[in-house]
Amino acid sequence: MKIKINWGTGIAIAIVLFIVFILSFVYKTIFIEEYEHHLVSEDYYKDELYYQEEIDKINNANYLIENISLRNTDEGIIIQFPEDKDYHKIKGKVKFLKRSNDKLDFEKKIDLSNHTMLIEDSILVSGKWEIRVDWQYNEEEYLLKESWFY
Predict the structure, then answer these.
(1) Which terminus of the chain, N or C, has less C-beta within 10 A?
(2) Which residues contact 137 (CB under 8 A, 6 or more apart)?
(3) d(Cα 31, Cα 29) in Å, to the nearest integer?
């Protein structure tokens, strides 16, 4: 027995296969935990109110002679603060955000014994991090936001 398929039947089969293909992606994004999608911030609207303050802090940091720098080492990530500032007067916090898994996010208070701060390898996972260094020096506020691969 031979099965004959004319061009109309072929187009109908192609459309049905395309719909099944698209619906499989819809199913994956909605029901499979691995493809979870969510807002970057839990307090999205509250964060929006403070955006101008953030812009001002970034602009202050851009006017510095020497800004904060980051570098990878075997021990972890070293955050280098400006040498022309007295490290005893630097206060603030460092936030590490892992966009792929918000359970890995953490925050550390800036407590310096010299111009560098080490984020230990033991608490870091390889991959892309969003690093946010929010710091103050002599009542002036600064902010560094950077995507970093470790």
Answers:
(1) N
(2) 85, 86, 89, 90, 91
(3) 6
Residue ranges per domain, the chain? 1-37, 44-149
99: which 2 tokens? 């966009």
Q: Report the residue count for the chain.
A: 150
State pLDDT tens for residues 104-115: 899 999 988 898
The answer to whether the predicted template modeling score (pTM) of the entire model surpasses 0.70 is no
1.20.1050, 2.40.50, 2.30.30, 2.60.40: CATH of 44-149? 2.60.40
Residue-averaged pLDDT of the chain: 87
**For residue 130, what are the contacts with CB-CB under 8 A and spacing of at least 6?**
96, 97, 98, 99, 145, 146, 147, 148
